[in-house]
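To assess whether the prediction recovers the assembly geometry, we first specified each molecular entity separately, as shown.
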Amino acid sequence: MSELEGDAMSAEDRRLVDRLRSAYQPEPLEAAERLAFDAALEERRRRRPLRLFSPAVAVTAATAAMALIWALAWPGFEAAPEPAGRVRLAEAGWTERLLDPSDWQADGTELLGPEGASGSRAVELPDEYTAIAAVFLDE
Amino acid sequence: MQGVTALESPQASAELEQRFAEFVATHREPARRMAWRLVGGESAAADDVAQEAFVAAWRGLDRFRQESSLSTWFYSILVRQASRHRRWRGVREAFRRSQQAVGPEAPPPRRDPGLQRRIAAGLDGLTRSQREAFVLVHLEGFTVRECAAVLGKAEGTIKSHLHRALAHLRRELADLRDGAEDHA
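The predicted structure of the complete assembly is given in tokenized form:
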């Protein structure tokens, strides 16, 4: 009989549990059924390769899986399409100018398009870029 | 031989095989019975669950020197296998219906199948944790401490599960307390 270590059951509950225990159980295996059970167990043991998931195998498999995921997820070197309605860099070759050391002394007016800081801008910049540009240009 | 690495001697292999055979002989019926009670009274499923647990025990046999540790670990696996079986039961039944397979007829049970179905339904109304605790402690005779070790929970948690399980079954199966006769 199981213990409840201080949590004694009422007599009615004990009767209920006893009734459940006696009624709710399978038929015991007969000799032939026992042999069949053991044979099926042995078949399972033979079918299951042991130590399939050895640490070395697990690490190798995990590494291969991660490499495959990385390879499939890598977007490649295609340039992202230019977002419409955002920055229109009016002048070609702006990347070369950005990389040109002489541009490091530039005052940021390059980004405002060919009219520079003086007039209306050919470049449509988001508001935050405009604000940042304004800081540099003391507008 | 399955279960033996190249480094183990034939003598060690034979000892492991002997240990395993003794373990199966000792725990075959208790494992089948526990699995049967946990999966809801299906004999084929119980055998399946018990055999899977034994295979897992075989794979871990050399890690456990003490029989008590091995038993605790074995029944932990068995409880998990039973839970997994219950989770996939709906899928299996749908597949079986689609296949319209007619299996061999099971021999007529000696115990009252109607009563067993009622009890199974009562246990189905418990949460998984309550059902596992109730089966292990009240039906299988585990102590609360042993049950806590198998299920990996605190003893207080097990007691709480037992209390609620009993309250539920008291409501659902109250007539069984009064010694109603089996419908043989």
